[in-house]
Amino acid sequence: MVVDLARRQGIVELKQFTRSREAVVFTMAFPIIMILIFASIFSDEIAPGVNYTQYFITGMIATGLMTVGFQSLAIQIPIERDKGVLKRYRGTPMPKWVYFAGKVLMVAGIGVVEVALLLAVSIGFFDLEPPASAAKWFTFAWVSILGLSACTLCGIAFSSVPRNARSATAVVTPVALVLQFISGVFFVFTDLPAWMQQVAAIFPLKWMCQGLRSVFLPDSFATVEPAGSWELGKVALILGAWCVLGLAICVRSFTWQNKYSR
Amino acid sequence: MGNDLAVSVKGLRKAYGRTVAVDGLDLDVRRGEVFALLGPNGAGKTTTVEILEGYRKRDGGEVRVLDRDPAEPTADWRGRVGIVLQGTGEFEELTVGELVHHFAAFYPKPDDPDEVIARVGLTGKAKARTHGLSGGQKRRLDVALGIVGRPELLFLDEPTTGFDPEARREFWQLIRDLNAAGTTIMLTTHYLDEAEALAQRVGVIADGRLVEVAEPGRLGNRANAPATVSWRTPDGTVESKESDTPTALVSELAARFGGEVPGLTVTRPTLEDVYLRMIGAA
């Protein structure tokens, strides 16, 4: 019964998403457009047998997951809060967590489609090799799921930061953009200044990129990584830690109404 | 105790910073009645109702809504209270049918969603996205979402603001039907005629206090207020006289004129006169 409610909520969220054209285009098409542009401009080898395109594409898949989980929720929830959507849900007997479950299901649905699209475009047009073994597919799956979970929880947690719907985009977008620049999406991570690498290592995106590189780049490339290896254990640890932190902040500080109506 | 009261409020207080919005308000709503909270903008209507709905925290006073403190709402209590807020049109990409069906699933014993849509007169719009609805249609959708869970008590916050006269009449009929079916209704309004048309009792709120509670016809002691009798004298001027016994005065006049009294009118203060005096005096 209650699980059914969460399923219904997820369907309603997905319906609303797919029916708002701007959201679909922005979320789905943006990473693809970025791949088309960057991969067409830069195609140098950055290491033996590895060209920039492959490196960049793995970064864009991680970015896509962050956009779906973090950016879209951190912007969408303040809008819903301002419009009174949250207030209306609160006036019903719907358990609070069903709202979050709906968002999680929506993010998962969009995330699967998004990753599939990016993979199809990359494999079809830019010579990205699909994961070569069952073990690599497994790594691909858990890095994506754990990374998306961390981003989703942080997105819900961060949704309490913007004061209103209008400021949400302005507050959230720079955070996401800066992370992309310092986490090894646009630039090869080890080419960045050491202090920048250290800052980036605090946040999830760097670890999502690194985990995905272990799936799509040849094993020889591991020596180019900061620690000389893929550090998958650390990837799991840090993404897991962000899940816990995000969840803790959600539970403590989520606000259902803006401060003028409490 | 208090089983015949749907809402009971004693000494309710709420301030925003230094601004006192509700200042020692007392109020009872009986089960089965339509109670109107009437007052000008800024009098504290919405603050009061949102405290009763469990949205806002109060600074002081005792509040019981359906025998519970709304500051600690439970899912069961939420299921028995219907809420129609002031805001509208928030789920823009969903259709009327999808929304009402979705909200019905939140409640333990909901009404048939399609039947609720019919009752608010939106059957023709069931497949339309909500962003395309007119103001009146959106408001009726709000009501549909508020009643689909079959609430015992329904709050309506300024439900007809911005309606054209015909839409208001239709809306009033919807409220009467709900009440006839046993739903207790508490509505806020700044329209006098709305309070008079719908409510069995009206509470007038001004500056965060309840100034008076009465049946609409008795508000401000209106029924017993002196009536004004005026008539035209034979030389053409109009004469007026306030009287506690207008009937006696009229029959005396009839005798004096030997039949019809020219230009005869008998008036009592209108609800508006009484209301304006009350909120001005508060």
UniProtKB/TrEMBL annotation, chain A:
GO terms for cellular component: ATP-binding cassette (ABC) transporter complex
Compartments (UniProt record): Cell membrane; Membrane
Annotated GO MF terms: ABC-type transporter activity
Keyword entries, A-Z: Antibiotic resistance, Cell membrane, Membrane, Transmembrane, Transmembrane helix, Transport
Domain ABC transmembrane type-2: 22-257
Signal peptide start and end residues: none
Membrane topology annotation: Multi-pass membrane protein
Example GO BP: response to antibiotic
TM helices/strands, residue ranges: 23-43, 55-77, 97-125, 137-158, 170-189, 235-254
Family that this chain belongs to: Belongs to the ABC-2 integral membrane protein family.
Protein name: Transport permease protein
Organism, scientific name: Phytohabitans suffuscus
TrEMBL record, chain B:
Membrane topology label: Peripheral membrane protein
Subcellular location: Cell membrane
Source organism of this protein record: Phytohabitans suffuscus
GO molecular function: ATP binding; ATP hydrolysis activity
UniProt keyword DNA-binding, yes or no: no
Keywords tagged on the record: Antibiotic resistance, ATP-binding, Cell membrane, Membrane, Nucleotide-binding, Translocase, Transport
Keyword ATP-binding: yes
GO-annotated cellular components: plasma membrane
ABC transporter domain boundaries: 7-232
InterPro entries from the UniProt entry: AAA+_ATPase, ABC_transporter-like_ATP-bd, ABC_transporter-like_CS, ABC_transporter_ATP-binding, P-loop_NTPase
Record's protein name: ABC transporter
Annotated GO biological process: response to antibiotic
Domain of life where this protein originates: Bacteria
Entry's family note: Belongs to the ABC transporter superfamily.
